[in-house]
Amino acid sequence: MTTKTRHILILCDLQCNSPVIEKVGCNENKYIYPPIKVGNPTYKNEYKTIHYYTPEHLLQLKHNFHSVSSVTDVFDKLILKRSNSSTPMKIVTAISENIDSTSFIRSSLNKLCQSNMSQILKELKTQVRTVNDAKIVLDILFKKAVNEKKFTGLYVDFYKQLQTILLSTREEVGKEMPKILLDNAQHLFINIPEKTEEDQKTEEDLDIMKFEFLGNCRLISELYKSGLVKSALPVLCMNQLVNGGLIALEALAQLMSEIGSINQKEIKPIKDKIVQRVKEESLPKRYCIILENGLKALGFNEKLM
């Protein structure tokens, strides 16, 4: 038996809000919005029936709790598609471009690991076009290196490779990178708090200060051991730390322990200052021990206790 196909268009009478069923041909195109085919065809007797709904009727069904969910879903998709197509184009400004670039750089560095370093380098070398771009990258990289001490070596290696790439592609930017990094590294050591200043701070402030000092010392030692900075930087930092309070002395001890080989003539005044402070001040035993171990790592056999 031959199956006949019939197309049923379901209209919505906007005056009485009730559906009106009308039989139409499959190629009808007399409506502002083409009717939407909904659901699978139904078979009854010798007829295959295909239902079409107008957007107006779908709107009516959307407010009817007894309507079939698949029908209203089609309406939702239609409305979403139209609303997306009418979304105004985003206006791009210098500020928005800068924000987008910073977000991209931060997102890329958050994913950085040893296995994907080459890929991240390719992504960021296209972002670093000016000295200001390099400053954004290094500011983020510097903070991550300080805050994530386990990965300081990774970030230093990334910096080294990025600078090498930029020296060959954008020489002016590549030459400015060490200066930007040194400015960041030295910033924390400009005003080292003394013991009396530490006593006035809250425990929370002291914890933050200690975290930052130890992170900076780890970064400086990694930069020095990688050959990216000369001994003048760690020596400068030690000279600042040796006059500070207990947190600064703990950071000094760590820096001496991690810095590796360094000319003893450059750091002898620092060693003498440590010995003087131990003799004149009643430093806690723990600090005497860690400072003695730091001096030993630099080749001095000075006994502080």
TrEMBL record:
Q: Is tRNA processing there in the keyword field?
A: no
Q: Name one GO molecular function term.
A: mRNA binding
Specify one Pfam family. MIF4G
All residue ranges annotated as the MIF4G domain in the record: 105-247
Give the UniProt keywords, A-Z: Initiation factor, Protein biosynthesis
What GO cellular-component annotations does this UniProt entry give? eukaryotic translation initiation factor 4F complex
Where is the signal peptide, in residue numbers? none
SUPFAM superfamilies for this protein: ARM repeat (SSF48371)
UniProt family annotation: Belongs to the eukaryotic initiation factor 4G family.
Matches recorded under PANTHER family: EUKARYOTIC TRANSLATION INITIATION FACTOR 4 GAMMA (PTHR23253), EUKARYOTIC TRANSLATION INITIATION FACTOR 4 GAMMA 2 (PTHR23253:SF9)
What is the name of the protein in this document?
MIF4G domain-containing protein
Q: Which organism is it from?
A: Entamoeba histolytica
